Every structure is written in C-alpha cells, then in structure tokens.
Amino acid sequence: MIKNLLTALMCVISLAVYADGTKVGDLYYLLDATTGEASVTSGSDKYTGSLIVPDVVTNSGTDYSVTSIGAFAFNDCTELTSVTLPNSVTVIGWGAFSGCSNLKSVNMGEGVELIAPEAFAGCSSLNTVKSHNTTAPSIYHASTVDGVSHTADIFVQPTAINNYKNAFVWKDFSNIKDVQESVVEFDLYDGTGYVKTIEGDLTDAQALLATAAQNSLVFTAMEVASTSELPANVVAVDKYGNYVAKEINLTDAIAFHCPADFKADKVTYTRNFKNTNSQPLYLPYDVNVSDFTEVGKISFVSNVHQYDDDDDGIIDRTSIEFLSKKSGTLRANTPYIVKANVTGTQTITSNNVVVKETAEDGWIDCMSTTHRYLMTGTYQTMVASKEGRYIMSSGSFKKAVANSTLSAFRFYLDIETRSGVGTVNNAPKVIKISVDGVEDEDNATGIDEIFTNIVDNNYYDLQGRIVANPTAGVYIHNGKKVQIK
C-alpha cells in the first residue's frame, strides 16, 4: 500500500508540473480518461475564499473521480481561507497548499492516506484541521507542516485520537481533539450580501438568524450526517462536500441573496396576492408547476405582437403573449407570470429542490421588426424609473414614472431599439398581456404594490394612446378606468 501511494504521489507531481488543467466549475483538473480519475491542479487565476472540492466532476459527458490534490495546486493562493476535501481524495501532493498564508481551516475526507512534503508549508494562519480518516494519514517529512503552529487544533474521530498522538509529525501537535468539540464558522448573508462571520455551533447559527433580516441565510463548511440536524435557513455540507439544507423559508417582496447553489429538502415561498391579475414571478430555485396548482396559473413568455390598427404605418398597440405552463419545471432565475385564483397570503411549498446562486440578470429577450424587449428579474427592491422601462400593474405592463418601485422576486421590461442604439419612438403607455391568446382585462381596481406615486392627468384610450380631447367613452386616467358620458 505504501509503495502504491508513493507511486501515485510521484505521478501527481509530474502531471501537475507538466500538464495544463481543464476548468470544471470553480477548479482546474488534470483528467485521466484511462483511469477515470481527476487531480486538482493550478489554473490561470489564483484560488480564493472558501472552496469545496467535489468528489466527482463531469467533462464532455464523462464523469471523473477526484482522487488527489496535485503538486502545488494551491501554491501561494494567499486569499484562500478554507478548503474541504471529499472522501474520494487519497493523496495531497507536494507543496499543494504551500504559501497559503491566510488558509485557516482544512477539512479532509476519510480517504486521505498520504500528505506529501511541504503540502502545508507556510500556512501560518492554519489553526483548524479536521481529518476523518481513523488512521492518521502518512507524513514522511516535517516540512509538510513547516510554519504551521503546533498549537493548531487537530480534530479527529474519538476512536482515532491515540493513533494520531503516536503518528509521525501528527504527534507534534498538542491539541488533538474529538471532532465533536470543533468550533465552526458561520457566514451570514442577508439581502445585501455577506454580513459577518461568527464562531459557534448550530444553536448560535439559529440565534444569529433570529436577529437578522428576513430571507437571510447562514452558510457553514460544517459537515452534517443528515439535514435533519439543521435549523431553517442554515446551509451546511454533506459527506460528499455538497451544500445542503433542511428547510428554507422565503418571504416575497423582501430582498434575498444566495452566494452558492445548494439542495434543500423543502423551500417555502410566502406571498400576499392582493388581486387575481397576472403578476410577475421570479424565483431562485427550480420548482414544479404542480406546486402552484392551488394558487394560480403559471405562464411563460412566448412572443411579442405589434399592431397598426388604423393602417397608417404607425404601431398603435403592443401585446406580449404568454402561454400556460401546465406541467414540468419552472426554471430558477427565469421570468414568469402567475395569474392568481385566490387572494391573500399564500404559502407555496416545494420539496427536494436546488436553490441557485441568485442572479440579477436572469432575462428573456424578444425581438419584433423594430424593437427589442428584455425581461429582467431582481431579488432586490429597486427604483424602476428609466426611459423605456415598464413594470407590471393591474394585469399589464405600465410605463415606469418617477419613483416607481419594484419589489423583490419580480421582473421588469425594458424596450430598446432593435440595434440597441438610440431611443424608442412612440413607446406605448401600456403594453397588454395575453395568455393563451386571450388578452388580460386591465383591472384598475387591483393596483399591485409595485407601482407607486403615479400622478398623470392625461387620458389614454384602452390601447395606451394619449387622447388630447376625450369625448364620450372609456379611458384610463390616473391609473384607473373611467367613463365619460
């Protein structure tokens, strides 16, 4: 076994030094098509922050097991702060993390058997090491941990403590402890992004969330055997190095930020439907259409239509066509509309979903012969005033005016010239919505909360055109439907 590991180590060294890596996700790998194995290597950019190495990577349809950290893979990555290695990794190569002066914690899976010389040399900030192998990984030279304080905490399985205390180099560390005693870092994210980091346990993480803004998340590199251990809105790591959560509770119209993808056993989304108009919907996770069955009908954008009603060569009205999404999955970070069949506060529950890193640029792009229509989602409450921008209100798109605001979990519509150059001429005041070929009725009795401070003394016909001298008929005035007799 020792001979095989040494041979593997020499292969790791030679491959890492003389071959170029393939980037998959956030990391670079040396991929061996013959063995189906992958070794983490260096890339064109230095690694930073907190990294979790996966156990399997997929490239061009082929899966590779990640079995080693190559020589000098993370060399001089001075902004790297923590790393988690999967159980599939058996070898940490020569100088793999050398010079990582801000590396604070390393979490090694149970598969690590050999740590090469200088692997952690110069890691002067390293104060926490977790090793899940019940047999201390072999270290053949003290240079492996040159520069690492011997007072760093080494957390191992309780049955392995004596083994580590008697193993070469490991025995020089004075704080070899039961892994259950380890202090864990928890990172808080609210709707604005990263807030702060605390140390403690899951109880502390739960207390942190209790005082944080709604829709906040806590991320930790702590490994859990089961998500049942986790409080709501806490994201941890499973034994494979993947982010997981038990339950995530989200409230509509409140800012939300998620820094990384993770799988959740359950996600709830609570929204107050003030009316039964078509309303914008933009969610950060994939969800089954059936989860919305009791709330309303989901539709996706299909086309944009422009009409010249009086045949004068000028566009008189514009309609955006949506089609009902009757089955399948709503994609995360994608604009949809929901036409509620109930009002009041409703909670939509989805099980076994992947919550995606929040993207403020999830969009749908449609073209007519003259214009470009861009629908862009947001997880922030934003001032939506901009030339050519529209937001949904009363079942149609209304042209944004000064101080118009848009709530989180919504999308807005921008109209540009097809070339993207210049301003849009004769932009309509209102853009109608049709679902499955039926145009939504503009219900002015149910204004959404997204449109505020609208003061406009003009009269508009039902196609959204200004009427200078209105006669008897039905018009839109100050956002309401009125009749002149």
Principal-axis shape = elongated
Helix content: under 10%
- Average pLDDT, rounded to a whole number, is 85
Structural class: mainly beta
Total number of helices: 3
**Got a strand count?**
40
Rg from C-alpha positions?
29 Å
The share of residues in extended strands comes to 35-45%
The end-to-end span amounts to: 95 Å
Biggest sheet architecture: 11 strands, mixed
Poorly predicted regions are: 1-19, 442-455
List keywords for this structure.
single chain, 485 residues, mainly beta, 11-stranded mixed β-sheet, 8-stranded mixed β-sheet, 40 strands, disordered N terminus
Plain-language structure description:
The protein is mainly beta. The protein is 6% helix and 42% strand. The strands form seven sheets. Strands 21, 23, 24, 26, 28, 29, 31, 32, 34, 35 and 36 form an eleven-stranded mixed sheet that branches.
